[in-house]
Every structure is written in structure tokens, then in C-alpha cells.
Write a structure and sequence with these properties.
Layout: H1 9-15, E1 19-22, H2 28-33, E2 40-42, H3 49-56, E3 60-66, H4 73-77, E4 84-88, H5 97-103, E5 106-108, H6 115-131, H7 133-141, H8 144-147, E6 161-165, H9 169-179, E7 184-188, E8 199-200, H10 204-210, E9 213-216, H11 230-236, E10 241-244, H12 253-261, E11 267-270, H13 281-284, E12 289-291, H14 300-320
Helix pairs in contact: 6-9, 10-11
The structure holds NADP nicotinamide-adenine-dinucleotide phosphate.
Length: 329
Amino acid sequence: MTLTHETPPHRAEAAQPQKILQAGPLPPGLAGQLPTLGPVEILSDMPDPEAFLQERGGDFAVLVTTGTGGAGRSLIDALPNLKAICSLGVGYDAIDMEAVRARGLMVSNTPDVLNDCVADLAMGLLIDVVRGLSASDRHVRRGDWNRVGPTRPSTRVSGKRLGLLGMGRIGQVIARRATGFDMDIRYHTRSAKPHLPWQHEPSLIALAQWCDFLIVACPGSPETFHLVSADVLKALGPQGYLVNVARGTVVDERALVAALQNGELAGAGLDVFEHEPEVPAELIVSEQVVLLPHVGSATRETRAAMCNLVLDNVRAFLAEGRLLTPIGL
Ligand code: NAP
């Protein structure tokens, strides 16, 4: 019998710890814990990320990224042994899903844990822009209360008609919040949700015509690109307000600027923009808008829950080859 010191190939493979590639900066709670799950390299820390990928791209089984950082086709292509992408955030429009499907990769996001905080922010933005809170705050700080007098009366919020574009996890929590404000609620989605107590509106234009306030809570995708068009904004009308806590790409931003400037829309509360972090100069100087730097889920509690869910997904993948909150492809 011949004895060999060579390890059988499958044994050698099994002994290899599965390596994790961190695409870019992550919150400290997540970045600090990832190395407890396996060896981690941080792509954005590499002096020459392209050269690094060429040399070491084959090492990684898991990619950890964020909803805004995503994973483009070139990154996915540069990781030939990639099996899973674990993303911080619920939106995955920045991940190239065609490349994901073509490669049969698994992808996880962080649904549900952020619903409350995003819905809170949507209601906050709505009340702020309709009642003019931030504008009034600026008025007081400028000394205009003393010099000019109080601000002009704003618009009532309670009891108004609320239209929701998107009635998923976040949309439903917004609708429940709005119920507490005695609002009449209808929504537009591709399919009606007969189990919900609110009326489905098959036409977005008809919803915009009907409502006083339109809140956007659907995903960013090629299908939702510029869904809130010049015509939808016109239908919302000169007394209407738009709130977007979803993705900037869902709203035609140039049309929004024009509608505000032409008096075709009363105001907008925006947490997201088409070309973040760029915000159109016309919006920066407008008193009709409230502008936030994409902070829908950015509370300490929710960010901690999101980070833990990413870690749990990476852990489950490394231990059992499955993800806890996979995106249905
Ligand atoms: P979700 O549960 O998947 O709900 C999405 C909703 O949008 C569903 O009601 C869906 O209904 C509807 N929808 C999808 N495509 C549509 C289309 N083409 N036309 C009309 N409606 C459409 O998602 P979620 O967890 O509520 O999150 C929604 C989005 O919020 C995320 O994708 C993310 O981009 C954004 N978000 C933003 C922040 C922030 O920081 N601002 C934080 C978290 C999430 P149908 O399938 O029946 O159409």
C-alpha cells in the first residue's frame, strides 16, 4: 500500500475558512464584529482595489455591502468564488441583480427592523413640510419673528387624504401612523392587497389627483424609475405635498424642481435624491422643501438591529450555507 502525505482536495477545501470581503465603510458595530466570523479584507482600504481584486478576488465567498454602496457587475465578476452578498439596508437597487441571477448568488437585506424608524421619519417629514416647521425654525433663528412678525398660517395635517405609493412593510407602518392622524388612506401598488383595510388605486395619476399628500414608499428599480413623473406631480396639484423616503430615482427630480418653481406643487419632504449626495441647487435654496441626508433608518437602535441582522446572515451562511433574510430573486 502506498502512503501519501497529500491531503485529499476536498479536505483541503473544507479546511479553508471562507473569506469575507467588506466592500466599503460600515458602521463600527458591524465592521468591528465581522472579523469574529471569519477572515475579512476591506476593499475600500486597498491602495489599488482593482489590482487587489485581480490578485485575490478568488479568495472570497461572502461580500458585505450596504444598500447605497451595493455591488456592481464589475465587482461581482471580479469575485469568481462568491456565493453570498449580505447587504445592510432593505433596498437592493444598487446591487446588479442581473449579475446576481446569472451567477446564482444568494443575497440578504435587512427588512422589517427599520420599518418603524423609516415610517416615523416619513410622518416627521410630512408634518415638517406641511406645517413649515424647519422654515419657521429658520425664521426665528434669522430674527424675523422680531423684525417681520410670525410666519404665515400653514396647512392642516390631520384628517387629510394620504396617498401611498408602495404598501409593503414600510408603507403599512406609515399607513398605521397616518390612521392616528385621522387620515383617509389609499395606495397604489402593482397588485391590490385585499387583506389590508385601505383602498387600492390601480392608477397612480388617479391616486395623486385624489390625495392631499403623496408618500413614496416603494423600491427603487428600473420599473419604478421616474414613476412620480411631471404628470403625477401635476395631478397632486398646487395644494399637494410629496414626501419621498424610498429612493430618489422613483421621482423625476427635474420635474419636481419645475413643479415647485411653477407653483404646480406646494412642497416636498425628501430624504432621498436621484444623485446622492448631490442635491439640486434649486432645492437647496427653496423654502418649499425639507431636505434630509438619507437618514430614514438612522437611529442608534435601528442601525444596531440592522448590523446584527447582517452579522446573523453572514454567520448563518458560513455555518449552514443559508441566509436568514434572503431576497426572493
Ligand atoms: P417592500 O415590503 O418590498 O414593499 C414595497 C412596496 O412597493 C410593495 O407594496 C410593492 O407592491 C410596491 N411596489 C413595488 N414595485 C412597484 C411598482 N413598480 N409600482 C408600484 N408599487 C410597487 O419594501 P419595504 O421594506 O417597504 O421598503 C420599501 C423601500 O423603502 C425600499 O426598497 C428602500 O428603497 C426604501 N427605504 C428607504 C430608507 C431610507 O433610509 N430612506 C430606509 C429603508 C427603506 P407590489 O409588489 O404589489 O407592486
